[in-house]
């Protein structure tokens, strides 16, 4: 059988987690919380399962959850949407990204992505018969050159994928970026896929600039969000997509043949959580900023150069003064010899620029972060 994705193997996340387990290293590589899901949310899940809500939900989502998502969008971004027509609950944000790409991309279409990029974008584009056009962002600022983006647009360009707050660079888009993006989309009649899974995790008082916050931008957008990131339940694989009704019709045509529907008890539990404890979402930035600062302060006397983290639950370290190893080899060294698992950034590029930068996840208990930093400070 001929492979449809001949250049893909086991993901770097699986590789580093396996190495961490083998060497009993502190795992700051894969992006999942070490702490548990809120008790109230787990209790609601148990309640709904015990009450027999264990069959298929409507394909687009449980109405109560669709309504709470619409209410959240209104509260956070001052956008009024129809919960029935514009919200679809998905089995994780990755499914939402995949379906949005399949809905938009036809053979020979081009989609602009910014490297370092989440590794699901390109395979989904290729499976749709399209081509990912990569624009590399580099350390330490990972800033988008919008003239370079304009130069990359051709008559085959169909869409642009953005991710803010950005994994793995930890940077956030600014208003000047939004203005430039909107002009390009309008000038060339392009669509936008906005990956906003870390939307509620912005630091130092910054406000997340969502595609939902601009009417003209939203009119061309699929906006993807993650309950797993927001409620520390990545294993539930719960996400959603918000889009204008015309785009959502096409999204749902494909969604119904990918997962059809998502985990019913979890949808009901999440609807209650959003309604009864809205403060969880509002306090998420403060919660993770504390984690960022614990790790940053513990690494202050290390030989690493810490790059500013504006959002997400990641921190980037430049190790140029420590080693001349490439980042993959350096991460393997850290696991085997130092006892800390990290992620190399080069794997998120089509053509890596040679920056010596690694990513640490600080969605961990404070004690784990301090213990890992103590090991890294010995270098």
UniProtKB/TrEMBL annotation:
Positions of the Aminotransferase class I/classII large domain: 26-375
Which GO-annotated molecular functions does the record name? kynurenine-oxoglutarate transaminase activity; pyridoxal phosphate binding
Name the family. Answer: Belongs to the class-I pyridoxal-phosphate-dependent aminotransferase family.
Asked if the keyword Transferase belongs to this entry, the reply reads: yes
For whether the record's keyword set contains Coiled coil, the answer is no
The record's section on CDD domains has: AAT_like
**Protein known as:** Aminotransferase
Under Pfam families, the record lists:
Aminotran_1_2
NCBIfam families named in the record: PRK09082.1
Q: Which GO terms describe its cellular component?
A: cytoplasm
Q: Which UniProt keyword terms apply here? A: Aminotransferase, Pyridoxal phosphate, Transferase
Its needed co-factors are: pyridoxal 5'-phosphate
